[in-house]
């Protein structure tokens, strides 16, 4: 098969949908499919709307490259004209028609989409609510191509819960959900359950082996003034407001100084987080450490060192960092929202989103849990091996393509 993926970013950009697209693309290429990815030439989310400052331009990506047999074509994103952005995109499309069309946009990509999908058997769209999905859908339909979408849907999020997103999903030939919760939710909102396939998410466990861990730990603890006995609470992800970091910080403050813990925050920053972190007291910032964006091996080492991984998000389509933590033998806590409880199962704990007191209690339970905490981590690892591998995800995705093809032939 010839498959064209259209997505807002692609690794080395950090994100769940970006990783999902990469690993599925690599699997499809490995089994003999001709795979092409069309994306934008950005790394950080905030680059969608503004040029990054020079000190943040540490990673640049090429226009064209090969990723394990996958052709990746990166188009220049088009920055919005300020007046048009607010008068048209916000006042008319957003407020009046309830259509999210802020961006990111690439006029270059839009102009070439018809030619890019001309030879495709399947056009695979990714990540609602971004506008490339609608332009990609129109280009595919004009070429009479099969269209599949993986929305990575965040139930309840105002940018996702718009009529136009449901309009798009109803008209695609197949919708791929990454959890049973997502499938059930979309079916309850009018998407034909017969065309929703569930693939799950995955990790390669062999990629999560610690390297030079004693030296790494020594440098970490010495560099941030942490004692050898200090227990480590870890957050990994984009530092956006909806990720629940304010709740996590408040829960951490509930823990007494005598409990000897530190909170490590790893991942890309945002303007919201920079302002939030700056208003913390000097005393708080001693124990609440912003590690910034860390290298992949550093992330793996942190997951091995952490006593618990916390993802307190309000919106998550899945939460792949839970799988990464389990691969490293680390227990997890997640907010009881969206797909998170169904992903964690018996492999960790959940708390009511926004409830800092409850989260603090769950943190104490794991930090002082001893054998119980280790048992939860072991249960998480069993779930990982049984349910969440990229081979299973890739195979289920390809089967969804084939099912669409069979349905098209039958009709």
Describe the model.
By secondary structure, this protein is an alpha/beta fold. The protein has two domains: 2-202 and 389-410, Glycogen Phosphorylase B (Rossmann fold, 3-Layer(aba) Sandwich), CATH 3.40.50; 205-386, 3-Layer(aba) Sandwich (Rossmann fold). Helix content is 43%, strand content 17%. It is built from 16 helices and 14 strands. The strands form two sheets. The protein has an eight-stranded mixed sheet, with helices on both faces. Strands 11-10-9-12-13-14 form a six-stranded parallel sheet, sandwiched between helices. Helix 5 links the parallel strand 6 (146-150) and strand 7. Helix 8 (245-254) packs across helix 14 (356-367). The model has no long low-confidence stretch (mean pLDDT 90).
What's this, in brief?
The protein has helices spanning 16-30, 82-96, 107-116, 132-142, 163-171, 180-188, 213-223, 245-254, 271-278, 282-287, 296-305, 320-327, 340-344, 356-367, 371-387, 390-410; strands spanning 2-6, 34-40, 64-67, 70-75, 122-126, 146-150, 174-177, 196-198, 231-236, 261-266, 288-292, 308-311, 332-335, 348-351.
